[in-house]
Backbone:
């Protein structure tokens, strides 16, 4: 990690000036490691804390926010009786839009990027539709299946990514990469066949969420290929979140009814619901913020590795909290799937090295 530097006197170095200028012109794709300009930006908290300690705190915050939003969603939708996943997702989007506006426009956590054309706006809107589908399906699945099973299915994202990449872009991977996907599929088959609380609808919408997440990553790589159109992850969230909220609102009203009125009515007798919803929506934003901070202070590869660990840890914590039954075969299936994902990541790295 590169520490922030503070200059005590004005200096002029042509090579340094040209390097900084080049870094300033870079625009990142998701989830690329941020530019040197972003990495070297001075944070007040970081200037007084050991870099290693700061990174450890950020990674711990990433784990807590990612696992926390899963547990809160599960509690709200399954145990608390708040059975409105579309409205809940809309609250998440409104929260992300509000916090992103403050973080970028007032706190300057990343430089503000602007939408440059109507074409770029339509591309972001297309990504937003896929994003809405994926998040709503993921939240809906938590009403019907345990978090542990949800995470096992979510771990198969690389399998769907490879399929969509081949179908949409005709991109072929090496035989080693495809071979590494076999344990991913085999593991989820084992976990599905031995899941005590299996629910077909929950399983299908979770598959929809996982495939939607994979489709978004492939489509994003196609649509935002122009360097001038690429947006940093936090800027992309700033524009996608309000679009997503507007898309979800009519669906929530049509499918779930007057949820806002029902929520306010419930809040009159149980104010805890307000605390739960605000806390849940805030943690949903923290997931995106800590994704960025982990990438900034480590790398995109580290974030990918942590994602594999998070799935296993979230499954374990959820079993401890909600006491849902698990079987040895189910645990074995999940372990095989995660191992397959690790093998897939390693095979992809070797494939890229060979290509270059």
Residues:
């Amino acid at each position: 990690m590169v520490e922030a530097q503070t200059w005590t006197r004005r200096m002029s170095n042509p090579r340094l000036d040209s390097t900084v200028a080049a870094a300033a012109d870079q625009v990142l794709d998701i989830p690329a490691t941020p530019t040197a300009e972003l990495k070297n930006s001075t944070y007040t908290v970081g200037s007084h804390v050991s870099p290693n300690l700061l990174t450890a705190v950020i990674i711990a915050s990433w784990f807590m926010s990612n696992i926390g939003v899963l547990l809160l969603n599960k509690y709200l939708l399954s145990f608390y009786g708040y059975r409105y996943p579309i409205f809940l997702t809309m609250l998440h989007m409104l929260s992300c839009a509000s916090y992103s506006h403050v973080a970028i426009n007032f706190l300057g956590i990343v430089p503000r990027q602007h939408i440059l054309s109507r074409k770029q706006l339509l591309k972001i809107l297309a990504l937003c539709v896929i994003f809405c589908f994926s998040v709503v399906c993921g939240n809906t699945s938590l009403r019907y299946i345990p978090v542990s099973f949800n995470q096992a299915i979510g771990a198969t994202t690389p399998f769907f990514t490879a399929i969509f990449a081949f179908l949409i872009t005709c991109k072929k991977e090496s035989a080693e990469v495809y071979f590494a996907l076999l344990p991913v599929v085999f593991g989820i088959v084992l976990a599905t066949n031995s899941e005590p609380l299996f629910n077909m609808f929950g399983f299908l919408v979770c598959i929809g969420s996982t495939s939607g997440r994979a489709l978004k990553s492939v489509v994003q790589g196609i649509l935002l290929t122009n360097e001038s159109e690429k947006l940093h992850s936090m800027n992309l969230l700033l524009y996608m979140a309000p679009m997503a909220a507007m898309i979800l609102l009519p669906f929530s009203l049509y499918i779930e009814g007057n949820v806002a009125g029902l929520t306010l009515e419930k809040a009159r007798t149980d104010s805890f619901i307000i605390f739960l919803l605000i806390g849940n929506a805030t943690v949903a934003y923290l997931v995106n913020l800590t994704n960025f901070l982990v990438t900034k202070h480590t790398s995109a590869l580290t974030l990918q590795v942590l994602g594999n660990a998070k799935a296993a840890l979230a499954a374990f914590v959820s079993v401890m909290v909600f006491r849902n039954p698990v079987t040895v075969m189910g645990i074995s299936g999940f372990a095989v799937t995660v191992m397959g994902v690790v093998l897939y990541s390693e095979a992809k790295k070797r494939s890229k090295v060979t290509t270059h």
